[in-house]
Amino acid sequence: MKNILIISSSVRNKSNSEILARQALRGALDQGNKAELITLKEKEIRFCKGCLACQKTMKCVIRDDVAEIAEKVKKADVLVFVTPIYYYGLSGQLKTLLDRLNPLYPQEYSFRNVYLMTTSAEEGDEVVETAVGGLKGWIACFEKARFTGVFNGGGVNDAGKVNAREDMLKAACEFGKSL
Fold first, then answer.
1. In angstroms, what is the C-alpha Rg of the chain?
2. Do residues 21 and 80 lie in contact, with contact meaning Cβ atoms separated by under 8 Å?
3. Which of 60, 97, 170, 177 is the most exposed place for a label (fewest CB within 10 A)?
4. Closest of 170, 127, 178, 126 to residue 19, by C-alpha
């Protein structure tokens, strides 16, 4: 049994990426894993101040919801970051969270496999290249972790449109089972 943490970063109602994240969660749970979905739209996450106090104290000076999320990230075996693709990159919410996870850098952590799950209006692997690069930059700071793969849900734009894509819903569930 793996401890899988899925973090959805879309703030849009009926978000395609969150719909797929829920399918991945279902697949992970179906395999008997411990799995949880965190939705950032429900969280208060402020910008990193760049003070680097967290490197000494292993805690952020900012008091918001990130400390609770960071503790779950630290304890997870598998991380799945879920983002809509905006201008070929990670969502601002996800990038802000990654910046704020800096207190984990000097600590022991459990995660080894890190995945990216995306949705975008356009299709094709080139659409997610910049987003993958951004996540790989974060992962590079954690020598025991590795980028393990990407689920690319391209070709969905309007909110909830992915619900009409039975093939993509099934693929997302299978992705969750494979974690």
1. 16
2. yes
3. 170
4. 170
pTM: 0.96
- 133 Cβ partners below 8 Å, 6+ apart? none
Question: 3-class DSSP state for residue 178?
Answer: helix
Tokens of residue 72, six digits: 């779950």
DSSP 8-state class, residue 86: B
Report pLDDT digits (tens) over 107-121.
Answer: 999 999 999 999 999
pLDDT score of 109: 97
Question: Sheet containing 146-154: which strands, arranged edge to edge?
Answer: 34-39, 3-8, 78-84, 113-120, 146-154
Residue 93 is part of a domain; what is its CATH number? 3.40.50.360
Read off the DSSP letter of residue 59.
Answer: S
Token couple for 8: 């959805």
Question: Tens of pLDDT along 70-118?
Answer: 999 999 999 999 999 989 999 999 999 999 999 999 999 999 999 999 9
With vertex at residue 110, the alpha carbon angle to CA 105 and CA 115, rounded to the nearest 5 degrees, is 85
Domain that holds residue 26: 3-178
- What interhelical angle do 129-139 and 92-100 show, nearest 10? 10
Cβ–Cβ under 8 Å, residues 39 and 6:
no
